[in-house]
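Fill-in record for HNH endonuclease.
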Amino acid sequence: MLNLKENSKNVREYFVDIKSKIEDRISKDGFLSTSLKNELKERLFDIITSAPNELPDINLEFIYKFIPLYDSATYDLYVRGSKTVKERHAYHPAIQSIQSIFNYKEITGNRYYLAEILKRHTCTYCNRNYIKTIGSTKDKVCRAEYDHWFNKDRYPLLALSFFNLIPSCSSCNKLKSNKNFELDTHLQPYINDLNEKFKFSYRKKTFVDNNVTIADESSLPAKTKKMIETFKIKEIYNAHSDTELRDLLDLRYKYSENYIDILINKTFKNIMSREEIYRLVFGIEINEDDFHKRPFSKFKKDILSELEIIKPKSP
């Protein structure tokens, strides 16, 4: 999983872009009292822009206001219920009201806008597929998908919250689906914890047959293991072991250990930067903040580092 960096300017721009549309839905809602409508409008900035660790409490705060007799066990049964069960449930009118106000499906244009300000090129979860948005609100060609990290069924108030929308590919979005992620059980892309990162590795079986593995997997934190399992990271990357991994191993055996050093210090000295040379030779970004720009960047960087083709940058 790649991390996402908070950018307060992006958050403000996103809020300004959707604020009036949500306020209009609040005003037109037939379920809410006038006082609750006013409170929602007053707290809209918090709902849309608050940090990930603040979002669950905000959602629960307003669930209590929408459902005065709210009970967590009853709510859990409602969330897990079938469409028919939900429609007959006492909580349904209130939840319908929230879902109507914070309706993700009706802001298709804002998804283009969000993609434009985030400028993410590959999936946050797998770094395997491009998600770059092509086109605009009017000229729809191809767009990124957004996973709701706190799922919409359980956290309906957070359907449009900036830090709850994770740029992802279709495959990862389907794998995640409506699985219930919580901050104490799963990694959140906007919360960067160095202790919870993992590295790709490999196991050589034969000259042409190799497996992608996760380095020291058994000792990884539980959160990291769950993310690897949810998004089938090993399985997905092993599907590329006969191409992407094999190409990297071929490089190791076909070129001398100081091949890159020669390119950096002699061939392209004063012509290309270290980063540009790695991009030219391996088709990857080597700086972690730029991994998202090209598929497989993290995977290739980890494997090339293990093979000592890429060496730590000198101080």
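KEY FINDING: The mean pLDDT is 88.
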